[in-house]
Amino acid sequence: MTDTPGDSPLWDRSAAELAAGIRDKSFSATEVAQSFLARIDATNPALNALVDLRPEEALAQAAAADAAVAAGEDLPPLHGVPVATKINTSQRGYASSHGVAAWAGAIAPQDAACVAALRDAGANLMGRSNSPAFAVRWFTANDLHGRTLNPWDGAHTPGGSSGGAAAAVAAGMVPIAQGNDIGGSVRFPAYCCGAVGLRPTMGLVSGSEPRGAEEFDSPLSFQTMAVHGPLGWTVNDVRLGLHAMVTPDLRDPVGLPLRPPLGGPGLVKVALVRDVGLAKPHPAVNAALDDAARWLSETGHDVEEVELPLLGEAARLWSLLLYEELRTMMPEIERFGDDAVRVSLASSFAAAAETWGERPTLDAYIKGYARRGTLITRLQQYLGTDRILMTPVAAEPPFEQDADLAGDARVRELLAAQWPMQAVPVLGFPAMSVPTGIRDGLPSGVQLIGGRFREDTLLHVATDIEARARRTRPALAG
Q1: Which residue in the list 129, 161, 162, 206 is annotated as catalytic?
Q2: For residue 356, which of 347, 342, 368, 372 has the smallest C-alpha distance?
């Protein structure tokens, strides 16, 4: 098949359109793979979003998908659809490098659970997305693979740590990418690149990785705050990615043994939280909130602006619980990490110390986890069964590149601006970044937060925002 005049190219079509077209033989999985590989050739050299590309493997996966269609087999939901995976998530036969040069040869013998789920759903695994070393910056660069650029403006971050995933989606290299999020690493890159990103409820998507000869005892905050989630160009792409990634898995210490229902609600109450006293929203951020609130009101949702101080308290707790546990990993980061991650974390620890002291006590740490439970209960009660929150994604537009290397004062501003990214992992609720358009040449968007296991509500409301937002592909991406 060749695209006729007026048709969008295959690389610019949604995951649902691609899966349906392959299924009904409008085009083949091989033609889809060829279109995306050509798009990668055209855009990736400038952006460096995807690394460790193996076109021959992508074409072999596509040929197998076409053979299944020809044989009349039952086809899974993402049959033949290109998907990227992140360099810190195991994919068999590929390095789980975490952006660390010393680990370039750390070849995974098996898939992580979420990658296996995508493979079982029929995805054509096409490329590994770049991230910062150890995935602990909101910027995407490392000594092994280099820097990823924002497809809208290379002077601004594509986000992190799933910056390669977001840039690849925005540029049309893949319709769906897998990412992970412990402090905004799915939602913030989606915001920076003008894509859609969903952080699911804790336990919905398995975090289990292949076990090696030596098991790694993950810190508690990593077990209870880090999640895998999908990024996509459309809300429906993210919906399909989520449904594919949901993985009942008892190997995950917080995993669910069943698949919760994912339905579709009607009108809901939307509580708009603009500011929690940590960072004054930038005018572009306020404008995005105003646009989304107006669109949802016109759709029929009940939108009310409220104050919710518990979100600010949760954001402050993040810097206690995560950084104190990250401290136990610092010998390894100091040994294997690059200069950027060392400098960034040093400023982050200094910023956290202004709230919690240079070395928080065990008592403060224990009380922090106790307080976390109280905040979760309070938010659960506030949301009930028919309310969601709408907040900024960040209090600033996408940051300038390497802003976290500009000194302690700037890092304090970054951490304050990222309160919406930090509060959610502490609370464990699902949240998604939804684009609202372009302002001053950069993407803008809002964050939606819902009740636990109510991803359906978020996706439904996000669709209403998407229907009104004016979106185009970034010019730098072609």
Answers
A1: 161
A2: 368
Residue 4 in this model has a pLDDT that exceeds 50: no
Coil vs helix vs strand at 284: helix
Cis peptide before 97 (omega within 30 of 0): no
Q: CA 168 to CA 150: how far, in whole Å?
A: 10
Reported as type and span, the H/E element at residue 39 is helix 29-47
Name the CA radius of gyration of the chain, rounded: 21
Give the predicted TM-score (pTM) of the model. 0.96
Q: Which residues pair with 303 in a beta bridge?
A: 270
Query: Do residues 252 and 205 lie in contact, with contact meaning Cβ atoms separated by under 8 Å?
Result: no
Q: 81-126 pLDDT, tens per residue? A: 999 999 999 999 999 999 999 999 999 999 999 999 999 999 999 9
Give the phi and the psi of residue 19 in degrees, each rounded to 5: -60, -40
Please report, for the chain, how many H helices and E strands are present, in that order. Answer: 16, 13
- Count the neighbouring beta carbons within 10 Å of the beta carbon of residue 74: 6
- Selecting among 28, 86, 97, 433, the annotated active-site residue is 86
| 167 vs 154: CA distance, rounded Å | 11
In tens, the pLDDT along 194-251 reads 999 999 999 999 999 987 544 567 888 888 999 999 999 999 999 999 999 998 887 8
Task: Name every residue whose Cβ is closer than 8 Å to that of residue 9 and which is 6 or more positions away in sequence.
Answer: 3, 35, 39
Measured CA to CA, the distance from residue 179 to residue 115 in angstroms comes to: 10
Q: Which one of the listed residues 14, 97, 185, 319 is annotated catalytic?
A: 185
- What six digits make up the tokens of 79? 């049959």
* Torsions phi, psi for 442 (to 5 deg): -125, 150
Is 86 a known active-site residue?
yes
Q: Got the DSSP string for 391-442?
A: EES-SSSSPBTTGGGS-HHHHHHHHHHTHHHHHHHHHT--EEEEEEEEETTE
Nearest-angstrom CA–CA distance, 54 and 49: 14
What's the CA gap between 278 and 112, in Å, rounded?
37
List of residues 6+ apart from 349 with CB closer than 8 A: 323, 327
Q: At what angle do helices 419-427 and 362-383 cross, to 10 degrees?
A: 90
Rounded CA gap, 261 and 453, in Å?
8
Q: CB under 8 Å to 193, separation ≥6 — which residues?
A: 150, 151, 152, 158, 159, 163, 166, 167, 169, 170, 443, 474
